[in-house]
Amino acid sequence: MDRWEKRMPSFATRLAGLPQAPLVAMGISTLLALWLLWRPELLSALAMAWRLPLIVLGIWALGAGFSLGAGLVPERGPLRRLLGPPLCWWLLGGFSLVVLARGLWGG
């Protein structure tokens, strides 16, 4: 048995196996999108060097969350790796933390 097979799966991998995972991804993406529509200064008030990477991260995270929630993730190939679990959960979590931090302390 390989040492990687003995490892406990990560939180994102365990979350991806739940039957409610697509609905949760769609809900988180919807809430983040609505919050950024309501308060766009959370990202637009940043310097350009921080704003552009965060916009790209947000587009990727929200796109992955919406595509996972709608069931539009391909079964195999490079798009499966970029849009599917567990990367989708890491992207949504990271972007949610950035937006939450900006909303609570920086915005």
Provide structural commentary.
The chain has one domain. The longest helix has 23 residues, at 48-70. It is mainly alpha-helical. It is built from six helices and no strands. The mean pLDDT is 86. Helix 2 packs antiparallel against helix 4 (48-70).
Oligomer class = single chain
Radius of gyration: 15 Å
| Integer average pLDDT | 86
Shape: elongated
Output the structural class.
mainly alpha
Number of strands: 0
Profile the largest sheet: none
Helix content: over 70%
Q: In percent terms, what proportion of residues is strand? A: under 5%
SS summary, helix count: 6
Transmembrane segments: 21-38, 50-74, 86-105
Protein name: Cyd operon protein YbgE
InterPro entries: Cyd_oper_YbgE
Pfam families: Cyd_oper_YbgE (PF09600)
Task: List descriptors.
mainly alpha, Cyd operon protein YbgE, elongated, transmembrane, 107 residues
